[in-house]
Amino acid sequence: MQKTIRIGDILRRQPVGETIEISGWVRTRRDSGGLSFLEINDGSCLANLQVIADDRLANYESEVKRLTTGCSLRVRGQLVASPAKGQAVEVQLEALTVIGWADPETYPLQKKRHSFEYLRSLAHLRSRTNALGAVARVRSALSFAVHRFFHEQGFLQVHTPVITTSDCEGAGEMFTVTALEPGQLQGTEPFAADFFGRRAGLTVSGQLQAEIFALSHGRVYTFGPTFRAEHSNTSRHLAEFWMVEPEMAFCDLAGNMEVAEAMIKSLMATALSDCAEDLELFEQFIAKGLLEKLAQVRDRPFVHLTYTEAIAVLEQSAREFAFPVQWGIDLQAEHERYLCEEVAKAPVIVTNYPKQIKPFYMRLDDDGRTVAAMDILVPGIGELVGGSQREERHELLAARMAAAGLDLAQYGWYLDLRRYGSVPHAGFGLGFERLVQFVTGMQNIRDVIGFPRTPGSAPC
């Protein structure tokens, strides 16, 4: 049996003169003078491969001329140089087998541009389109690049739990996980009879558990799904999203920022080198200037500002912001984008935020007002990375947790890490969907994940 080859490999190698076999889906078919010209795509690359069938094929009239967009095929033929403009090679068909038909009366994807809003209603089919197919390939390449970067930097991957009894952010936006019926959740301890004997939820972050392994293995990272029950129906929020979260022992804020910047630059380099064809699509149809923006992030050093300096810049600007600026506020997307797009014209790392707007685990600065936090802001997105040096001092951490209203007994294991061989350590979280948004220029976060989960919507 002839080995099936991916179209992307064929177009890269262009083995003219060889007999090849490919499988894929019909994008278009047109007929002219006893010939049918089929555009076939198998998802391995953006480009289609043209396959030419003539009327001497035994199933030309019975099957080839009935082919429509969406049909799946296996074809065999000789790869030849193409005289047509815009393509180097094409296939002279020798045999064609229809694997699956697509009803042209009901198939919702045709050879035209569909709005992303419309495609969100077709979660099971939208990955067949050019743009969403390209997003999937870029996402896959970036995922692999994340693992490669940390492997090359000597990090150990750990798998932190999806079900947790610890709320890392303390914001109360966790999805509850229960085996009980609603009527059984009663009394002063409604979860005492539940599966875990206590309240559990879907994790909002793997950070706290990653700290455990950082304090035994030095440099670790976790990369997995996280969840937030935030009733926000904006283009920036998802209920299920993926986070990249490294943790480093014997590391301070400066070292944390160094690793984060190096990681982002490495990911930009991978996208530009490995996803060139797909990025050209986004440059042409989604975000003009995208390639230059990615190259600048790859090549230019990031700008550093303290939170206090950033507030001063915002206060002195002539811009009227929807959210008024004063020291102590949490920076909004409009503030973040102004800093990196109009002031620095480069990614900005903002450090040393007020302690009252940051979680309990961030290390208190010597001034007692700020914490050793850092956010990396990028053009078009705002915050891409958020991180900090963690509070390694037992007494200060316990006081911060008590002030945040946390049950110290429930977090006894976390405090133990500060009692038994505590060391300075730091880490950060990168929102993977925001990274994919930045690299592709896509405006809505629901279009950079295969199956977006948002309030009132969980298709497939």
Description:
The strands form three sheets. The chain has an eight-stranded mixed sheet. A five-stranded mixed beta barrel has the order 1-2-3-5-4. It has 460 residues and is of the alpha+beta class. The two termini are 36 Å apart. Helices cover 30% and strands 23% of the residues. α3 packs across α12. The protein is elongated. It has two domains: 94 residues, Nucleic acid-binding proteins (OB fold (Dihydrolipoamide Acetyltransferase, E2P)), CATH 2.40.50.140; 322 residues, Bira Bifunctional Protein, Domain 2 (BirA Bifunctional Protein, domain 2, 2-Layer Sandwich). It contains twelve helices and 16 strands. β2 and β3 form a beta hairpin.
Overall geometric form? elongated
For the record, what CATH class of the largest domain applies? Alpha Beta
- Here the CATH topology of the largest domain equals BirA Bifunctional Protein, domain 2
Fourth-level CATH superfamily of the largest domain: Bira Bifunctional Protein, Domain 2
- Give the biggest sheet: 8 strands, mixed
What structural category arises from helix and sheet content? alpha+beta
DSSP strand (E) fraction? 15-25%
Task: Note the run of SSEs as H and E.
Answer: HEEEEEHHEEEEHEEHHHEHHEEEHHEH
Taking all residues together, what is the mean pLDDT? 95
Number of domains: 2
CATH architectural category of the largest domain: 2-Layer Sandwich
Give the fraction of residues assigned to helices: 25-40%
**Count of discrete alpha- or pi-helical segments spanning 4 or more residues:** 12
Distance between the termini: 36 Å
Compact description:
With 460 residues, this protein is α+β, with helices and mostly antiparallel strands. It has helices spanning 7-13, 116-120, 130-152, 207-217, 253-274, 276-285, 290-299, 307-316, 333-343, 394-403, 412-419, 432-440; strands at residues 19-32, 35-41, 49-54, 72-81, 89-100, 156-157, 163-164, 176-177, 200-202, 219-227, 240-249, 303-306, 348-351, 373-378, 382-389, 425-431.
